[in-house]
């Protein structure tokens, strides 16, 4: 194997590793040199400073000694004069000896001898005439008293003639009557001494007395002024006996210059000799030493940087070569080889690197062969897996399609079965006219019961198919909870009484309130639970209770259905809610049913985000607990009676159906508003232009001019103010919503019209808009809606509308049959819409929903499908009108057919 060495390519410019090594070594060398130099400079500085201070102290001490010796010599001379023997102590002898002493000591300017009582005996002076035996009393002089007290007296310095300094020195003789000799001493010697002290080139020395007054200075003027220096820190400290610092004291002299100051004390006199040297001169050697050290530090640092550069390159370049080699090998260049010749571990690492590259090349070649072999195997396995996946997908698609087909089949067949069954049930009810024999009546009751059972079975299968296909969606609105529960109980109470069971309803006062939710689904759940309890309770009774618990913005409904029936084993408590499941086969044979009631109730409960639980033991009955969260009603508690509006409105009602016009006008009048009727869009535009209206209630689907076009034309009229336009329609499809929004219509009321929804829509402020009222689904008739209409309009008005609906719907069925016979899709859709609109006026929701479905499906229907739809609508209309006849009859002819509430 050829080994290539691309040394030139690998020598890359220094990178981060090189800088890291370089900076680290330079920093280490600099730190070592800086610390060493710093310590050296610091200690040299301290030593030099102390040495300078010591030299100055020696100079000050030397001067202090000389001053002390000078004064001591004068004191010795005058003490000799006071100690002469008696035979040589005559005044004349004293005078002669004093003259000799003046000649011997030029510093003595005057000598005076006083006797023991302070009388002057002899005075010899260089300044005035001599005097002998004057007996002048000088006992009060400080010199005389001081000499008598301490045998020696040193007076303060004074200037004679303001030119030269003098001081008084007195000594006392010995003997019984000692005399006192007083000498006036010229201190010029001290001036000469201070002037002769050399402190560096610019330093100086001076002397202060025990009071801090300057008495000697190289510059005579400060001394002649007798400058008081006691306020300066060093003089004050010295006078107080505080010793000087070892390194001297740094201060400002009389000229304001910073100096290094030291002093010494003249012991016998208490004088202080100060020696000062300007800092600039005192520290000049130290600064020079620091400069030399700094220069040396820079030189050494530069040398260390060069050495660091060399070391860094020596360490970093091989590592960079290793890095570049690894990068090239990592990119696939396995022929790369390194030539590192450092003679150390890095060279050994480079050799290992080369061996690794060679081994990788061999391994790569082997691996490549294995990869080719394994890839072929994986491709075969992948093809097999894809084939299995495709087969599974096809099977899943077939299963999904089969399930959808099953659901559609169940829905279609169940719906197709309901239509003739409802017709049969209606005919059976009409046959019971009171003229039948007992046997015929019994046969008729048996047929009716069988029909009811069959309708209930079909309804359960249809509802299950919708739930399984996920076609159920919540349609929420505000409703009275107590009315819903009472209505459900009223519907089921006849069944319980028919089996000889008791039926109790106990609602907490908190239930008498308005809530927001889906009343239709909740009604279905309650009917299924109560119906299930009635079915499986042979004797005893049923009790229903309900409470409401308020939680912030929610109302938590807890409804409990108890029975004294056969009970359910604990191991079946969860399975009983599954599809097509009953406790056991004997129960199914005994009581019948499909096993879908509780499954549908559980699914609807979960759809409403609630819980449905069971507590039961065999033989002790069952307790079903329903917990469902409901919202708070937006408009507060729904009142049973109509409260007067805050403002009476003038409302234009536009609808092509006479039944809807009658119902709408009655509702508006009952709500306290004025109503005007327009039977088509053109009439609505004309009325809106001729008189002012506050609100326009516009039907959406009308012949010639529909609601959107009519609303657009009304908006184009110069009306002040412009009335609010509210669309009333049963078409809640997304495309219709988008079309209305594009036309600027945002308020929609759904058919069949609920009183609360209509009231909110027309009386709410325009900026709030009216909430949409959901459609009320049902098998045939929405009993709750019909009860509201009865309460609102009264029995006579309902009877009138009932008769009008019967005539109108009969004519529309004839029109629908004629249009279907020739396949006129447009007329069929229009007549189906009119029939559904008329049916919704009195709550015929089964007919209304089927009309809406057919209206939407007409464009894609074939001719046979149109004819089948027409027949279905005719049968459904017949069954719905029969059920309505029974509900509005003064005395019911028979128990209510179960088919009317089967889907609840």
Automatic annotation (TrEMBL):
Main subcellular localization, coarse class?
Answer: membrane
Q: Which Gene3D superfamilies match?
A: 1.10.287.130, 3.40.50.2300, HAMP domain in histidine kinase (1.10.8.500), Histidine kinase-like ATPase, C-terminal domain (3.30.565.10), HPT domain (1.20.120.160), PAS domain (3.30.450.20)
Limits of the Response regulatory domain: 650-766
Per the record, residues carrying Phosphohistidine are 833
**Keywords from the named record:** Cell membrane, Kinase, Membrane, Phosphoprotein, Transferase, Transmembrane, Transmembrane helix, Two-component regulatory system
- Asked if the record carries the keyword Transcription regulation, the reply is no
Where 4-aspartylphosphate occurs, the residues are 699
Q: What is its EC number?
A: 2.7.13.3
Segments traversing the membrane? 21-43
Please list the GO terms describing molecular function. ATP binding; phosphorelay sensor kinase activity
Q: Which residues form the HPt domain?
A: 794-891
Give its localization.
Answer: Cell membrane
Q: Which residues form the HAMP domain?
A: 313-365
- Catalytic EC class: transferase
Q: How does it sit in the membrane?
A: Multi-pass membrane protein
Q: State the reactions this protein catalyses.
A: ATP + protein L-histidine = ADP + protein N-phospho-L-histidine
Query: Where does the source fall among the domains of life?
Result: Bacteria
For this record, the Gene Ontology CC terms, alphabetical, are: plasma membrane
Task: Enumerate the spans annotated as Histidine kinase domain.
Answer: 412-632
**A Pfam family name for this chain?**
HisKA
Q: Which PANTHER family match?
A: HISTIDINE KINASE, HYBRID SIGNAL TRANSDUCTION HISTIDINE KINASE J
Name-wise, this protein is: histidine kinase
Q: From which organism does this entry originate?
A: Bradyrhizobium guangzhouense
């Amino acid at each position: 194997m050829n080994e290539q060495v691309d040394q030139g390519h690998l020598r890359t410019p220094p990178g981060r590793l090189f800088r890291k090594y370089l900076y680290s070594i330079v920093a280490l060398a600099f730190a070592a040199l800086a610390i060493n130099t710093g310590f050296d400079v610091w200690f040299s500085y301290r030593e030099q400073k102390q040495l300078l201070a010591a030299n100055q102290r020696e100079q000050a001490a030397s001067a202090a000694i000389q001053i002390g010796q000078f004064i001591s010599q004068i004191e010795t001379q005058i003490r000799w004069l006071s100690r002469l023997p008696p035979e040589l102590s005559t005044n004349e002898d004293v005078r002669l000896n004093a003259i000799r002493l003046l000649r011997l000591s030029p510093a003595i300017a005057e000598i005076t001898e006083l006797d023991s009582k302070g009388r002057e005996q002899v005075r010899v002076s260089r300044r005035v005439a001599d005097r002998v035996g004057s007996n002048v009393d000088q006992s009060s002089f400080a010199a005389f008293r001081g000499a008598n007290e301490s045998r020696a007296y040193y007076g303060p310095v004074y200037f004679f003639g303001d030119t030269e300094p003098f001081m008084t020195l007195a000594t006392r003789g010995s003997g019984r009557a000692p005399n006192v000799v007083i000498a006036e001493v010229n201190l010029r010697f001290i001036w000469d001494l201070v002037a002769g002290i050399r402190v560096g080139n610019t330093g100086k020395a001076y002397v202060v007395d025990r009071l801090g007054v300057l008495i000697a200075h190289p510059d005579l003027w400060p001394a002649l002024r007798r400058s008081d220096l006691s306020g300066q820190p060093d003089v004050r400290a010295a006078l107080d006996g505080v010793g000087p610092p070892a390194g001297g004291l740094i201060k400002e002299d009389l000229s304001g210059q910073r100096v290094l100051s030291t002093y010494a004390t003249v012991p016998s006199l208490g004088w202080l000799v100060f020696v000062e040297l300007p800092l600039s001169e005192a520290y000049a050697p130290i600064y020079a030493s620091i400069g030399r050290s700094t220069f040396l530090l820079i030189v050494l640092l530069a040398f260390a940087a060069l050495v660091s550069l060399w070391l860094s390159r020596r360490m970093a370049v091989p590592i960079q070569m290793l890095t570049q080699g690894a990068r090239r090998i990592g990119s696939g260049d396995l022929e790369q080889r390194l030539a590192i010749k450092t003679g150390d571990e890095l060279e050994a690492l480079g050799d290992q690197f080369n061996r690794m590259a060679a081994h990788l090349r061999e391994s790569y070649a082997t691996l490549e062969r294995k990869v080719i072999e394994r890839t072929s195997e994986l491709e075969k396995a992948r093809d097999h897996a894809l084939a299995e996946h495709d087969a599974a997908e096809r099977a899943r698609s077939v299963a999904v399609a089969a399930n959808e087909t099953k659901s559609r089949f169940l829905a279609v067949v169940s719906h197709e079965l309901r239509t003739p069954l409802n017709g049969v049930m209606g005919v059976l009810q009409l046959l019971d006219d009171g003229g039948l024999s007992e046997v015929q009546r019994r046969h008729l009751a048996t047929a009716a019961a069988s029909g009811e059972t069959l309708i209930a079975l079909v309804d359960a299968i249809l509802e299950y198919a919708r739930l399984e296909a996920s076609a159920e969606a919540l349609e929420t609105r505000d409703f009275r909870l107590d009315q819903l529960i009472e209505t459900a109980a009223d519907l089921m109470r006849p069944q319980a009484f028919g089996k000889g069971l008791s039926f109790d309803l106990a609602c907490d006062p908190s239930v008498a309130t308005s809530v927001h939710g889906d009343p239709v689904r909740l009604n279905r759940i309650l009917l299924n639970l109560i119906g299930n309890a009635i079915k499986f309770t042979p004797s005893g009774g049923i009790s229903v209770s309900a409470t409401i618990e308020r939680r912030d913005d929610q109302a938590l409904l807890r409804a409990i259905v108890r029975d004294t029936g056969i009970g359910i084993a604990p191991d079946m408590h969860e399975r009983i809610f599954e599809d097509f499941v009953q406790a056991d086969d004997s129960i199914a044979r005994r009581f019948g049913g499909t096993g879908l009631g509780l499954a549908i109730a559980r699914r609807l409960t979960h759809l409403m985000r609630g819980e449905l639980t069971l507590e039961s033991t065999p033989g002790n009955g069952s307790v079903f607990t329903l917990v469902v969260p409901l919202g708070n009603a937006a408009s507060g508690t729904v009142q049973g009676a109509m409260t007067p509006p805050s403002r009476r409105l003038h409302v234009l009602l536009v609808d092509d159906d006479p039944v809807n016009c009658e119902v709408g006008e009655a509702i508006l009048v009952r709500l306290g508003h004025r109503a005007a009727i327009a039977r088509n869009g053109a009439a609505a535009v004309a009325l809106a232009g001729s008189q002012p209206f506050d609100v326009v209630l516009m039907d959406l689907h009308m012949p010639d001019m529909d609601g959107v076009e009519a609303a657009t034309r009304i908006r184009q009229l110069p009306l002040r103010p412009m009335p609010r336009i509210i669309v009333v329609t049963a078409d809640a499809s997304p495309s219709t919503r988008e079309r209305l929004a594009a036309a600027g219509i945002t308020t929609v009321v759904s058919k069949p019209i609920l009183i609360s929804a209509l009231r909110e829509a027309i009386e709410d402020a325009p900026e709030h808009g009216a909430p949409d009222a959901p459609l009320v689904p049902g098998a045939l008739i929405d009993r709750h809606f019909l009860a509201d209409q009865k309460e609102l309009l009264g029995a006579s008005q309902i009877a009138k509308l009932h008769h009008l609906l019967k005539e109108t719907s009969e004519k529309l069925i004839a029109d629908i049959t004629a249009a279907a016979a020739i396949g006129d899709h447009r007329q069929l859709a229009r007549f189906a819409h009119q029939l559904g609109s008329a049916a919704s006026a009195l709550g015929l929701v089964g007919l209304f929903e089927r009309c809406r479905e057919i209206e939407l499906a007409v464009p894609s229907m074939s001719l046979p499908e149109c004819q089948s739809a027409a027949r279905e609508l005719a049968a459904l209309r017949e069954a719905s009108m029969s059920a309505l006849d029974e509900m509005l009859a003064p005395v019911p002819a028979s128990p209510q057919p179960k088919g009317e509430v089967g889907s609840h």
